[in-house]
Amino acid sequence: MTKPSILIARAISPSVVAFLQRHFVVTVNESDEVWSPETLTAQLQGKDGVLTTGSERIDAALLAACPQLKVVANMAVGYNNFDVAAMEQAGVQGTNSPDVLTETTADFGFALLMATARRITESEHYLRAGKWTKWSYEMFSGAEVHGSTLGIIGMGRIGQGIAKRGAHGFGMQVIYHNRSQLSPELEAECKARYVSQQELLQTADHVVLVLPYTPENRHTIGAAELALMKPTATLINIARGGIVDDAALAQALKEQRIAAAGLDVFEGEPKVHPDLLTVPNVVLTPHIASATAGTRIKMAQMAADNLVAVLGRKAALTAVNTPDAAAQAKRWAV
After folding, report:
1. How far is residue 13's CA from residue 54's CA, in Å, rounded to a whole number?
2. Which residues contact 97 (CB under 8 A, 6 or more apart)?
3. 65 and 82 share a domain?
4. Is 253 in the same domain as 107?
């Protein structure tokens, strides 16, 4: 029996590649280039499945040009690189990689909060530039973390992890806003209180964004929302680019209408709004919240397990859509 053919669209752990080679004929993007849509489409010819990252856009045009493609396994929790409606209509199964990165990402979110509040990046740049010649009373005086108010927008598993770190480790008062309120048991576990988004923005000393990207969530934080925040507050985004209006944020930082921001994600990444590069009171990291060796392997392995399941005619482990049955049958007939 001929093995199915798959594409691994970016370079990943050799151990996961070896696992996939036991099941499939595998093509790997060893150069780790971010392919153009045209190149990705060309590389997908004759492929039954593909392991993607957030860099690869899966849309109607690509699906129409790749009639053999049956499953797209995203090595990420988010899947805003998928046109889910187009995938369903085309009969293509999509999957993601949730849960395995929860604690790692929560760790990073809290680290970014700490670095932002305590002006770590700004002070390091100052030191490296040879500007530190003496101690002074107010030099890089930052914001309190212990005992302050932590506001979390998006209270899924990662948001809950950040809440627990803040409440249990730093004695923070935790408030949150979410599409739906948590159960009383989860609220007690997180020591968190549900509030409106407006109250959260007006009250929190540190606002952390952990909500998924959807068209409705675009610019959840814009000029109007930033205007509600305290001038001493910080804003942390480990969610997705586009959740924050980066231009409005850069202006607010420049005018010191909020104290500082920490950003791991950006609109149009890997491009960063140029104004964010000119203000000192922002910590910028290149979308690395899940970047530990162990977690990245787990993410890749979950995507691989989804490919094995779907191409073995079993249910996806972590499906993000329900393909149209008739369209799906046509793809399996190719």
Report:
1. 17
2. 73, 74, 75, 76, 77, 298, 299, 300, 302, 303, 318
3. yes
4. yes
Q: Which of 119, 165, 177, 240 is catalytic?
A: 240
Name the token pair of 230. Answer: 């305290």
CA distance 185 to 174: 15
224 contacts: CB under 8 Å, gap ≥ 6:
none
What would the mean pLDDT of 163-185 be, rounded to a whole number?
97
29 vs 7: CA distance, rounded Å: 8
Distance between CA atoms of 69 and 49, rounded to whole angstroms?
6
Q: For the domain that residue 13 is a member of, what is the CATH number?
A: 3.40.50.720
For residues 270 and 286, the answer to whether their CB atoms sit within 8 Å is yes
Distance CA(140)–CA(119), nearest Å, equals: 6
Residue type, 171: G
Claim: this prediction has a pTM higher than 0.90:
yes
Q: How many Å apart are CA 226 and CA 233, to the nearest integer?
A: 10
Catalytic status, residue 10: no
For residue 157, list its beta bridge partners. Answer: none
Catalytic annotation on 30? no
Backbone angles phi, psi at 215, to 5 degrees: -55, -35
Please name the residues in contact with 307: beta carbons below 8 A apart, sequence gap of 6 or more: 6, 20, 23, 24, 49, 51, 71, 73
**pLDDT greater than 80 at residue 1:** no
287 a catalytic residue? yes
CA distance 198 to 216: 17
In terms of DSSP H, where are the helices of 52-147? Answer: 60-65, 84-90, 102-117, 120-128
Same domain, yes or no: 64 and 174: no
Specify whether the CB–CB gap between 95 and 303 falls below 8 A: yes
For residue 274, the 8-state DSSP code is: G
Q: What is the pLDDT of residues 14-69, one digit of tens each?
A: 999 999 999 999 999 999 999 999 999 999 999 999 999 999 999 999 999 999 99
Strand order of the sheet with strand 49-52?
A: 25-28, 5-8, 49-52, 71-74, 93-95
Q: List the domain range (segments joined by +) for residue 46.
A: 5-99+293-333
